[in-house]
Design a protein that fits this description.
37 strands, Maltoporin, Chain A, Beta-barrel_TonB, six-stranded mixed β-sheet, 22-stranded antiparallel β-barrel, tonb box, 9 helices, mainly beta
Length: about 725
Amino acid sequence: MTRLWFSRHPLSPAMLAAMTVLTPVFPLVAQTTTGTGVLTTDTTTTQVADTDATRRSSAPDAMTVTARLDRARIQLQPSTGATVHAFSRKALETIPGGDNAGLNSVLLQAPGVAQDSYGQIHVRGDHNEVQFRLDGVQLPEGLNVFGQTLMTRFADNLSLSTGALPVQYGFLQAAVVDITTKNGATNKGGNVSIYGGARDYFFPSAQYGGQHGRWDYFFTADYVHDRVGIENTTPSFNAPHDLSNQYHFLGHLRYTVDENTRISLIAGVSNAEYQLPNIGGQPMFGDDYSSLLPQAPGSDNLNERQKEITDFGILSLQKEIGAFSLQTSVFSRYSSLGYSPDPNMGDLAYMGISQHAERSVMSTGTQSDVTWRVRPDHTIRFGFQVFAERNITKADATVFNDADQQVNIHTGNGRTGDIYGLYVQDEWRPLHNVTVNYGLRFDGVGEYTNEHQLSPRINVVWRAWKGASLHAGYSRYFTPPPFEVVGGSDLQQFANTSAATDVSRSDTVKAERDHYFDAGIEQIILPGWRVSFDAYYKLAHNLIDEGQFGAPIILSGFNYRRGQVNGYEFSTSYDRGPLSLYGNFAWSRAIGKDITSAQFNFDGDDLKYISQHWIHLDHDQRWTASAGGSYTFFYRSGHPTRISATMVYGSGLRQDSDVPNGGVIPQYATFNMSLVQSFRDLFHSRFLRTTQLRLDVTNLFDHPYMLRSGTGVGVGAPQYGLRRTILTGISQSF
């Protein structure tokens, strides 16, 4: 029911000059910054040179080949002129929770990232337009709302790129999360860990990597059981009816054909089951429903469940041919979501509809990126992306008709479509300290809507004086709507029932078209101390937003005819010896006017008001801040002790007042801490290496805070942040 659906060659001089604003948000030990703003790690070479097994390999010198091919792959996708926030492997381990922390928790430590319910994040005032890449290959968008398919422990390092992005980044452009995956060449050996504590939290995991001849491999798997799968709907210490079970697997297999050729396969599986938390004291949908549904439970005893599955695979070929570098990939992703209502007709009693709802999206595609080093002052890059997708939606709903009789209605539809994009750009160095990156991108979509656009983009980076880098850029963006959008063709089936809508109009969700401007500066004050400032402005036509409309936690898209987003960010970090510190704050404003699609999801009075007035978007948060630090005692010894802490502040998302989204949820600040003790060769065994004990505390001061009040345009139930949670763990490397 649609109403509820919710080179062999080193870096060129031009690339070394094109210094992007890069803000390290945690210690950048063993990391260097390339001229394109992408991180490389010297662990790539030091760890590969490991061992007699490498020397016995039938492959060419593995140390040299692996480092060079990794460097060539990074050069395929620079971020010249964009703003890049980097997380090294050490940074990921230092954040409270370490590898056990979700990716959203990690990304909240970057400036301009706002926290929302269901594990969502909002970057620079956009709703959910964040693309994820594994080793430079973009994953198609899936249905997962609060599930985390990608695990932090699978990342060797990652970066968050924002701003006026170069033309190789298309489709989802609020931010690009690029994960450099672990592999068997640089992550040999294994690790097992047990982590858990409060709220039945139980989190065993394992990982193993190795190399044999021309092959290297790495895999990781975990199981998560807890009672905090979805945010609490009340401020209480424990959420009612909130059990979750999640299974994850990720693997990486590579074959080095020769010194210029490598083939890799990345695959992942995620299976998650959730209970939906209840809210007590809710009134029934109709005055006489208590007599019509005497078996219906109280609203605090509903038994609603949701299941999410995601599988994906990426097969890539990387090739070096003289002045050309190439990576071409084919990929597939299957994502499904199923909602089961309360079996005793509780959904019908409290919402006027009880439905089993299912959605699935199958995406298959290809991506190719080529770098041509024409001359020392010119580097040409070009490539394309094509996704073919199949979306299936079906639901079996029970509603009351005008005669107060229960009737069953089946709805369903399927559609096949595609999105595509191709680009060409030139990274030009007209002066020794100036780099210009300019290009064109052509995108199209043929799904629920058929549209296309030619998009110019340009970035200029100027290294004005020692330790300083200034950048400015403009990007034209084209964002196709999420393919899981459901049309309104079945609305008439629910006319004159308890699930009838106030508004019968349902125009097609369109592609968003943006003009995006960005400028900033970074300065190294002292060795190890960086500061940066960045400002941005986005002017949008058919701005895409998403909302939850009903019980199933499924987000559905809609358009504002006009949208404006602007803001600024400040960031600083210090990393020297055993001490690392960072701090970020950001100001943002996101507004929209006139909802022009999927109107049946909204109240008629709200639609009328929004058609004539600008309103804040529901995910608009004026102030966002994060800070943290770590200190390692005995860091030169074999038994270091590390203490770290982080802070996240939000001035509050929007809620309704006398006008839609006119109010602000109360501000909050949460503090987390971590204590980690490591022992090298604790058991004096040649098979057992580092042993690690950890203690993590989330929301140290047990501050109750609200993420969502349950009101606002496209907002579902209330959501509260996690109360104080103490977790401990032990891990053993071998």
